[in-house]
């Protein structure tokens, strides 16, 4: 495939200025849309001893921010270290070896190694390469799409998948209780044991003019939840009160994004967070995003206990496949 990879471009010695296809419109450039100072995002500890306080903290963060950092979640720092090592080792492979996993989104083949997942109307390109594959359920996993090198990639990722499934259950239960619903409600509404977990490893190489580019443009996730960890190079920003807020790196914390499907199910009580990724002149940034999504055939709409005559449904009802199609093609929902 004749796709120009950002990593290849970034590490070519000649690159001193950003090629024009990466230069954002003036109103989108980081140099003109700086993050507000002195605002910190919610940090929530799962070891909070008072359950009702934990439920309240999670619900408030989900409704006011659509985002929080989760600590004391029970995932070993060693597993984070291994996960990051195997991801970095894949991106350090010779280009030809990586290209063997090239995906083809234009033909519906999203799994594999890729560059630029969605088109925007001005045809600006994001400063990121990625590797994307399904982690769960096992019936949907195609190991042929997973990296064979490094050899430990599968073992490490399967261990991480188990932890992500556990954490997904815990977070969805807390979010259900925050809506005064039975704690299994959100999980069952999203497909229960058929819920899918998708891994996307984002690789943002050093960028010669980071003030003009974006790693990922402003967007909300079409998932229900996104559970993300990154290397120590920060770059994530979220939109709050009409300003960008920088999310500082917090070691071993999980970044929890509320996605579109939970905003719909909650009838807007929880907020799908608008966010973007900046890039760095000196350092590569990497992140590991796990998208928690319903199967394509599941019908998603506001849950009946959450609307009435005074507070009617704010969203239409459709299958996740229909929602996904509209989102990818920038069609109205």
From TrEMBL:
Family: Belongs to the iron/ascorbate-dependent oxidoreductase family.
Cofactor: L-ascorbate
Organism encoding this protein: Arachis hypogaea (Peanut)
Record carries keyword Ubl conjugation: no
Protein known as: Fe2OG dioxygenase domain-containing protein
Alphabetized GO MF terms: dioxygenase activity; L-ascorbic acid binding; metal ion binding
Single GO biological process annotation from the record: pigment biosynthetic process
Lipid metabolism recorded as keyword: no
Pfam families on file: 2OG-FeII_Oxy, DIOX_N
Keyword field: Dioxygenase, Flavonoid biosynthesis, Iron, Metal-binding, Oxidoreductase, Vitamin C
